Amino acid sequence: MAGHSKWANIKRQKARVDAKKGKVFTQISREIIVAARNGLPDPDANFQLRSAIAKAKAAGIPNDNIERAIAKGSGQGSGDEAQYEAIRYEGYGPGGVAVLIEALTDNRNRTAADLRVAFSKNGGNLGETGCVGWMFEHKGVVTLAGQLEEEALLEASLEVGAESYETIEDEEAETVLTDVFGAFEALEAMSRGLEAHGLTVIQAEPRWIPSNSVEVHDRDLAQTLLKLIDALEDLDDVQTVTANFELSEDLLRELDPSAG
Fold it and tell me: With 90 as the cut, is the pLDDT of residue 163 above it?
């Protein structure tokens, strides 16, 4: 858990520095389309859709865009929309780091080819399904905002069946975020339960959590790994990238002083 939280913190810091809003809009719009297609177009009756809409609003996506994405997913669009499917890809980065990618694509061959190029150009290689998946656990993660009392947080977490939680203090943004971890199947129940306790839920999402992590101390290796992650995330079809490496705070600051 600790390793994942460190990586999540790195991702948040990087996102503030070099956010690509157009890419984020595309990612979340696809999530909404798929969620609406897989269930009812009513967010009150479709947790996946409700979560995607919440993410869209947090990213500043206009309501018109959200409504159009819902219409496309529910079959109310023009009728010529791409049919996206969720696919998981796996591979190895330099230093033996395990990398797991989630994509929403309308062309498997194109996505696989793009991923293969990104890996090969950055010291890694795209592997077969299952080659590193066993190193990750699929968990439900509910993110809470604000400074919370330890006792109240522990009580609420136990009541909703959570397995653990970790708090991250973001000094630059002057915010405190707490990730509550539980079984993937329990994500909706955890989210609703924590809200019922009066806690502020800002995000509820499935995540892949590495069961073990590779500690990276070499500066050149760290730079290559971050370059690989960026290259993968820049691909249009890629939704999430998870890797099982950790960088020390000192090394992170050395590579990106703005993240310190």
Answer: yes
CA–CA separation, 86 vs 108, rounded Å? 10
Name all domains of the chain by residue range, CATH numbers in brackets: 2-73 (1.10.10.200), 85-134+212-259 (3.30.70.980), 135-210 (3.30.70.980)
Nearest one of 229, 213, 208, 174 to 15, comparing CA atoms: 229
The structure tokens listed for 51 are 């979560």
State the burial class of residue 72 (Cβ atoms within 10 Å of its Cβ: 0-12, 13-18, 19+). buried
Give bridge partners of residue 104 from the DSSP assignment.
86
Whose CA is closest to 205, among 27, 13, 7, 51? Answer: 51
Q: What is the pLDDT of residues 70-118, one digit of tens each?
A: 988 888 765 556 788 899 999 999 999 999 999 999 999 999 999 999 9
- Neighbour tally for 155: CB within 10 Å: 12
